[in-house]
Amino acid sequence: MKIVCIGRNYTDHIAELKNERPDEPVVFIKPDSSILPPELDFYIPEFSNDIHYEVEVLVKIKRVGKHIDEKFAYKYYDEIGLGIDFTARDLQAKLKEKGLPWEKAKGFDGSAVIGKWLQKSELNALNSLQFSLMKNGIEVQKGNTELMLWKIDELIAYVSRFFMLKKGDVLFTGTPAGVGKVTANDYLVGILEGYEMFDVTVK
After folding, report:
1. Structure pTM?
2. Which parts of the sequence belong to the Fumarylacetoacetase-like C-terminal domain (predicted)?
């Protein structure tokens, strides 16, 4: 499986990081080794002093597809989830300054939290899903998929132009504003449409 991630898909997050608004989706990949096993804590890696949480709505691909037409994209997924794209922000900044790829800052071991999955039939309109991240009992991120620059079906169609999507692949759809640093003993909880989707302790 592969994890396909979308960057800069919420205007407020673009603004908070002082990035340029893209003309098309920003795509990057996390390896399967980046998945944090659900029974494990997240350990801050020794190579970064500025690990940020980024809560995101996830989509699990259920069938093989290439050059998928947007109007047929809904046929390629049944499950919606929530997760965290942990980012070594200090390392990312250094890489961006040099025009280098982000993989070391985005794809390190344990950097992808994948929570529980819900059938999309259990949810309301996918283009207006409410989600949030709680840090030590305080809401630090809050988003709604209606604020995405590119919606789920648009993203699937776009990504499939470049990468063949396969059963089990996971699409991270971007994060809203409110990203921030984690420190040891932080406790993170992700909520999607009132459902608690994951919880993670930081070490």
Report:
1. 0.95
2. 2-181
